[in-house]
Amino acid sequence: MWRILIFSVLTALVCQSKGHSVSQTESEGASPPNIVFILADDLGWNDVSYHGSRVKTPNIDSLSKTGVRLENYYVQQVCTPSRAALMSGRYPIHTGLQHEVIYAGQRSGLPLSVKTLANQLKERGYDTHGVGKWHLGFFEESYLPTKRGFDSWTGYMTGNEDYYTHVNCESLGCGYDFYANSTLDMSDNTTYSTLRYTRRAKDIIMGHQTDGPQSKPLFLYLPFQAVHSPLQVPEEYIEPYKRSSLSPQRQKFAGMASCLDEAIGNITSYLKSKNMWENTILIFSTDNGGETNAGGNNWPLRGKKWTLWEGGVRGVSFIHSPLFNSTTVGTTHRSLMHISDWYPTILEGILSHTLPSNLSLDGVNMWSSLLTGSVGPRTELLHTIDPLASHPGVALYNDTFPTNTTAAIRVGDWKLLTGYPGVDKIFPPVNYYSDYFNYRVSNWHWKTLNKIARIKGDEANYFHLMHDNEYHDLQDRHMQGVLYENDFPEIYQLTASGEVKNVWLFNITEDPEELIDRSDDFPEIVKQLLDRLAEYNLTAIPPNFPSPDPAGSPANNGGAWKPWVNTGVVSTLINHVNSAIVRTKSFFGQLILWE
Prior knowledge:
There is one protein chain. The protein is α/β, with parallel strands linked by helices. Helix content is 31%, strand content 14%. A ten-stranded mixed beta sheet has the order 9-8-5-4-10-1-11-12-2-13, with helices on both faces. A four-stranded antiparallel beta sheet has the order 15-16-17-18, covered by helices on one side. The chain has a two-stranded parallel sheet with strand order 3-14.
């Protein structure tokens, strides 16, 4: 196991930023950097200060401003698929986790054939620790994070829970869910989870051995619970927002985001006090768009969490490191990037390790582009193909991907959506005062008309906006902090012939808010992107989305969510078969996709 590695690109950065010559640095040897990956839960595009939000995130703002802000960065539309893409470097269609999330009680998880990012880093000499939310399966012990490459894990396995009591209620009942490694930990059910996770991160950092023959670089994965519902946070974090124009729901959410931001600042302080910061790369990402029903906001993007509109899949992200030189610091990265790209970017880019081709990655090494600001190698990304989602309307073509199957793909400037992409409203920030409401919404209202008139010239048939009486009713309720999903403009849902609409095309570079559907204007582009979806679909494995198993109910497991299936010969055989299917489809998929 190595402890010292020469990094060609990173060494050049160190030399330029520290004033050393390349020869001096190479002769002394460059230690592998510590990698801290912070994953926020349900943080929307308009939930950070630097995107114009009234939510105060000074530490996120400062770190991103002195690092690299990723402004064309994408995640999946919901929790599990994003985490699977991060840990595997693959699109969810290649792990069977493309439909919704893993619900407590389901016999589902990230396939055991997948070598996780933590596995890879552990093999390369890293101490690997996770703190927070797993959400990649726990029905068998073999799916727990400490069996997937993490030396330790503190946190929970399911998708959501109470921030204090760690109880999660789902279809099979309510159960306790908090682990220390692979064992239930019931030692503390009164501490707010963001604070508890920060305390654990401090213990890991301060206890990390940084010198001597046993020293290793640190990989610290921090998938925080915040800012996922339920809306809970200590009162002291809500107090700064109580005199603001934010609605009560948004005030609580803002307090949760501020607490998360404070945690990030504290973690950087711990790294500095341990003299680890100068050799650390910190990556921050959200896992999906904001949930507007729980205080989040994605203004001015269309949609929300669970949807394939930009508000559901365009994510907040940045990367920061004292190792960056002056030409990297303070830049904005506008090349297309996906959460699956972190896998090869960390392993091949940062660590200069060549990955075997049989991993069949969908992620792309973006390291050089992030450092230099050059155009990145990614030219397209598959948002998803979900055969289990609803199938509205009829397929438009017989010889390509069926448009009534829910999917979305981005190629260059163009984004195609099919089937049912989810709630397609644009949700303005919720505030009390009408002057702020009028400025943000009325301005947007008229700018929208002007934009459509400029691009389409016929806004009346292409975009439905509220009548004056609807607008004033909305304003009245907005001042009371009461909003509904059907309050905001939506793209029309019927074709000219009266059929249910199931295909949309947008030029995202020109129209990031997805206001102007161009599918009728460019049918040849629609067809090209449908053909591309058909190619991807040939490589997809079936969604692993079984009904919840009653045997997994907390009532049958001592009141807790914990593994309930014993791994045996049959289970092992199933894993081998699934592994063979994944490898075979991925292999032939590569032949199809790159011919």
